[in-house]
Design brief:
Helix content is 8%, strand content 38%.
């Protein structure tokens, strides 16, 4: 509800009520923390970097989206922390794949690469998901999925 005063100004009674409540109980008037956008590492509506949060995936690379039995697919991810100096925190990379083989991974503090070898056939259908979890020193994680299509499902025994 808005009331126009003779002085030419406007009064928003809801805002005035909120201010008077803040005077009585200041702890109820703390502004909410800005909402973070993980994909950009910035606060909602601004270009201000988030002070703290989980790792942010900067780049992904996948050498192929299809693989025949025994073929290799190289997967790479580059990540950073949403801080003033995002390179100051080394990250941990953990790769997961229920089928196929994940070969030795090569890591730097902010990048990881692994080669995945397609299995002879897949029990879960013709689409396979490989996941990398990127974790900071406080245990906060961000996941990235890679999809590979390939050999037909295994014949029932």
């Amino acid at each position: 509800m808005v009331l126009v005063l003779a002085s030419g100004g406007c009064v928003d009674f809801d805002e005035e009520l909120r201010r008077s409540e803040c005077v009585r109980e200041p702890s109820t008037c703390t502004p909410p923390a800005p909402e973070a956008h993980p994909e950009t590492g910035t606060d909602a509506g601004t270009d201000t970097p988030v002070a703290d949060g989980p790792p942010i995936i900067e780049e992904v690379h996948q050498s192929a989206t299809m693989a025949n039995p025994g073929e290799d697919v190289t997967l790479r991810v580059k990540a950073r922390m949403p801080r003033e100096d995002p390179r100051s925190v080394p990250l941990v990379f953990m790769w997961f794949s229920p089928e196929g083989a994940l070969n030795k991974q090569a890591n730097t503090p902010h990048e990881s690469q692994v080669t995945w070898t397609a299995p002879p056939c897949w029990f879960g259908g013709s689409i396979h998901v490989i996941v990398v979890s990127v974790m900071d020193g406080q245990g906060r994680t961000t996941d990235q999925e890679f999809l590979v299509t390939g050999p037909p499902t295994c014949a029932p025994r």
